[in-house]
Amino acid sequence: MIKPDGVKRGLTAEILRRIELKGYRVVGLKLYQIPRETAESHYGEHSEKPFFGELVDFITSGPVVAIALEGENAIAGWRGMMGATNPANAAPGTIRGDFATNMGENVTHGSDSPESAQRELALFFSEGELL
Ligand code: ATP
Ligand code: MG
User: Fold this and answer.
1) Measuring CA to CA, which of 27, 66, 70, 95 is 20 to 30 A from 126?
2) How far is the CA of 22 from the centre of ligand 2 (A)?
3) Is 42 part of the annotated catalytic residue set?
4) Class of domain 4-125
5) Which residues pair with 65 in a beta bridge?
């Protein structure tokens, strides 16, 4: 997912460019204003964390670009392309390393397991939208 900060900053094309150059197949793609309830469910694993409210406020602060990717080892590979959660620790060449300075506004999201990918894809896409 390209988070609202990435969309607002005009990073969508650059991020899709990196995904396509890497060789992943884009099987779903949409500009999407996440409803608050969906955001709370999406980040459900963090519901007890002190930053949960801010996280939900931020992810619903504007449209995101939801992307369904397919490819060998795509979950770990995409997380590698994003870089560390905290941009201060993200290597140059990664998306967060190249484009972010702030833990909250870290440009992209990636599912962290096959189970979370399945759960999150179902939150953002209907079956007919994945081609
Ligand atoms: P994401 O789930 O957004 O892809 P991630 O998997 O790298 O990021 P998570 O641990 O799932 O990291 O945290 C989700 C998001 O919550 C992070 O992207 C970050 O914006 C925010 N976050 C995580 N830890 C903190 C923290 N300690 N303080 C503030 N915000 C945090
Ligand atoms: Mg996460």
Assistant:
1) 95
2) 21
3) no
4) alpha beta
5) 2, 31
